[in-house]
Write the structure tokens for this entry.
Amino acid sequence: MTIKHILVPTDFSPFSDLALRVASSLQEKFNAKVTVLHVLTPLEADTLTAQPGNPWENVVLRIQNTMAEEVEKNAPSLSKELVNLEVVVGEPAEEIARFAEENGVDLIVMGTHGRTGLAGILLGSVTMGVIRRTCIPVMVVKCPEGLK
Ligand code: ATP
Ligand code: MN
């Protein structure tokens, strides 16, 4: 298996932070590129663009800034040329799986949970939906507080 393109879907939760840390370490070993992807639901996108003076381009730029900060904090050694920051609109699991399939992703690294989930449930719905939709290997990370 070659790992040349790693996808890290982020919802800016501590789980995504951990996924970035893991991806960064794999990136170094395999000299892969890393795409960080945030999916806005159509409702979120509409709400954000409905605010005055907030065209779509600004919304994307602001989210990309937040992603760049997340990368800087969790994967400072990742070289900028090897990182893509992507923002798309749709159903999160569907868009993550579609992006991975269409862009030659070799490995998806994501959290077992995210911003909204209940700890009692094994996997969040986005992770579950990605695993269901794709044959690309998915590495799920948990215990953001447990990584040394
Ligand atoms: P649920 O959303 O089902 O209530 P949850 O929030 O705990 O539960 P998920 O949403 O499945 O769990 O999140 C698991 C992982 O999926 C996150 O750590 C993140 O990697 C990814 N993820 C979740 N939402 C998004 C999103 N909107 N865009 C990109 N990645 C996401
Ligand atoms: Mn969620």
Notes: The domain at 5-147 is CATH 3.40.50.620 (Rossmann fold).
